Amino acid sequence: MKPEKTNRKPLWLKTKLPNTKQYNQVKQVVELNHLHTICSSGKCPNIGQCWTNGTATFMISGNICTRACRFCATETGKPLPLDADEPLKIAQAVHLMNLSHCVITSVDRDDLPDKSASHWAETITQIRLLNPKTIVEVLTPDFDAQENLLQIVFNSKPDIFSHNIETVKSLTPQIRSRARYDLSLRVLELAKQAQLITKTSFMLGLGESKEEVIELIHDIKSVGCNLLAIGQYLQPTKQNTPVIRYVPPQEFDFYKETALQIGFDQVESGPLVRSSYMAEKTFIESKLRP
Length: 290
Hints:
With 290 residues, this protein is α/β, with parallel strands linked by helices. It has eleven helices and ten strands.
């Protein structure tokens, strides 16, 4: 399928970058503590809304990824060594922002023997020590679906374990680097077997068919996933894969209803939805929160 002829975004994708007190406070916390966020690195269209609401998705293990997924704006290359102080810095930032719900993600670190699993566990531990009432949601790489590495993260007991499948099966080889459709499903299945609340996200507008999307939704549910986020793919740079189609809001509504009907606890579906978008609201409305 060829990209749409126009590069102009529909009105429903227009966003503005605010200059509010809360937005600037979050920006200051991130910059003064030398932290990374997927909000900035991933060129997220919701950065204005989320930072204005006092939330941010922290990105650990550096800001250079060992993979080169065609949809992602994060820099690819040889990462720097892990910052041993980063877990405590993240915990302190969560405390400074007074977050009741925090989301942590990371780049892929295939260069490390444990792919940064221990660093993940230490970050979750430090957040819990300093912020015992904060809900901890993690959005992790696939760790090549190695059970021993995933177990390190599982043992730290995040409240929500998220791993993104990103796209339909047929497009996975050309859109994702190294990652595999079946491995992502396996990661979610293992997390569910570890009795964790699980979540995933995928994008529309990459050339998938309606039938493929419905198949994807069913495949995700077959491994027991609780929460789902569906959003529009937006080309972050000229080097990334182009948008094939801008999907209208009513189509997102259809997929949300489809997913809810087959048993998902909560679904966020819309053009500007991202995996961590309105994460706290999603969790509360799912009624999974203890």
